[in-house]
Amino acid sequence: MCEVLYEGKSKTVCRGPDGGSLILRYRDSATAYNGEKKAELDGKGKLNAAISHKLFGFLEGHGIKTHLLEAQGDTAALVRKADIVMVEVIVRNVAAGSFSKRYGVPEGSELKNTVVEFSLKSDELGDPLICESHITALGLATKEELDEMTRLSLRINDLLCPLFARAGIRLVDFKLEFGRAGGELILCDELSPDSCRFWDIATGEKLDKDRFRRDLGDVLAGYADVLRRLADV
């Protein structure tokens, strides 16, 4: 067993083999509505780990630096240690979820441009939206870091959208986290159906965490379908 440093809602961070690395373990825990809804879904951690590792590897191959060093077994990864920026970046290609509720826009509505939002990384406060001047005023990130996070997020979107389209999946929106390491920003956390909205292009079927949030049933079938399709592209 590794020495646990931090336990999040669905992942556990353990001490790594040296001072510059950590072990990230994906658990079977599922949560929604800021932890109000919880369940254990056997096999979820393995699916999320496989999907995230594949996507991080794809991005690394296209010049995006990430924290992933190597996969370790089915549910863990050796990752580069980073100082996490306490701001999450949300990229939206299609109106859905909180965006639709906030602005009264029907889910599935096309957006005239890609939306980039920032939210404060705080479970206690419910990860509220935060603007750039608030972020810099609180010292969470510099203006230069925010510009770079935005640039990287849009580049990631430009890479992932056609990848998922080839798999017959619409990348509706997704959340990213960045960290500081070696004087630069690197992509951290995960890219999985827990942090992205994936819809089948032909049918609109949801293949992500909304199956759990909204009691749509057969949650892991959606996750497994994403992994299966990615294996073919």
Describe the protein's architecture and organization.
This protein has 233 residues and is of the alpha+beta class. Helix content is 30%, strand content 33%. A hairpin with a 3-residue loop joins strand 1 and strand 2 (11-15). The model has no long low-confidence stretch (mean pLDDT 97).
Q: Which term fits the overall shape? A: globular
Q: What is the succession of H and E elements?
A: EEEEEHEEEEHEHHEEEHH
Strand content: 25-35%
Q: By helix and strand content, what is the structural category?
A: alpha+beta
Given as residue ranges, the uncertain stretches (5+ residues, pLDDT < 50) are none
Number of strands: 13
How would you sum up the major sheet? 6 strands, antiparallel
Distance between the termini: 35 Å
Q: State the helical fraction.
A: 25-40%
Count the DSSP helices.
6
What number is the mean pLDDT?
97
The value of Rg in angstroms is 17 Å
Give me some keywords for this one:
6-stranded antiparallel sheet, 233 residues, 13 strands, 30% helix, 6 helices, alpha+beta, 5-stranded antiparallel sheet
Layout: helices, strands, pairs:
Layout: E1 4-7, E2 11-15, E3 21-26, E4 29-32, E5 37-40, H1 44-60, E6 68-72, E7 76-80, E8 83-84, E9 87-94, H2 97-103, E10 110-120, H3 132-137, H4 143-166, E11 169-181, E12 184-188, E13 196-200, H5 210-213, H6 219-231
Antiparallel strand pairs: 1-2, 2-3, 3-7, 4-5, 6-7, 8-11, 9-10, 9-11, 11-12, 11-13
Helix pairs in contact: 1-6
